[in-house]
Specification:
It is a single chain. The chain has 6 helices and 3 strands, in the order H-H-H-H-E-E-E-H-H. With 207 residues, the protein is mainly alpha-helical. It has one domain. Strand 2 and strand 3 form a beta hairpin. Helix 1 runs antiparallel to helix 2 and helix 2 packs across helix 4. The model has no long low-confidence stretch (mean pLDDT 86).
Length: 207
Amino acid sequence: MKYNDVKASVVAPAITGAQVGSSSAFREFLAWQPSTWPQTPQSIDDEFIGKLRGIFDSSMLDEIDNVIRDVQQANGDLQHRGHVVGIALFSALYAISFYGYHSRKKREQIPNFVKAHFPPEYRPYAKNLLVLYRHAMSHHWNLFGGGLLPGDEPPREEHRVLYFGLLNFRDALRAATDDFLEKLKSDIHLQAQTLSGYGSLRRYARG
């Protein structure tokens, strides 16, 4: 066989999103590839909740933790590196809250999730987290009416400006996610909303 007869493959599997070129029937569940997620079940059980936890942890929260850890090892803390981490955290808040709290009134999704599941110190600022942080950072990249700190500082207002630490918010989002999944075991309304949200996302999956 001549050397020039060997053709190297230039095809690599997707690291996230849809997979192309293989049958979904034989794929293992991969949290970051929606095309491998199971079809929407008729009811919620421990197995389905475990899949949701995998989606939230493996493709969102654990990935953000990996970035935080890399930044801390390279830089010591999140000074001058926290902006992108903040955007990722608020994108994760939107993504996780969608499952149980999506509605036609999108302005209610994040505040309702925060009031229901976040630690008490964040609940008075539920609307602020949507408008001052999630909208500002996702749509305009910068903060205009709020501030972020690099450490574990709890939320506080100073001169009418809300501040809290990125690491504190990261821990609060994890605690809220755990609380959501725990309540999902018995809250019938939350179960119906979550199945609806999951189903609407799963239908978009390709591959």
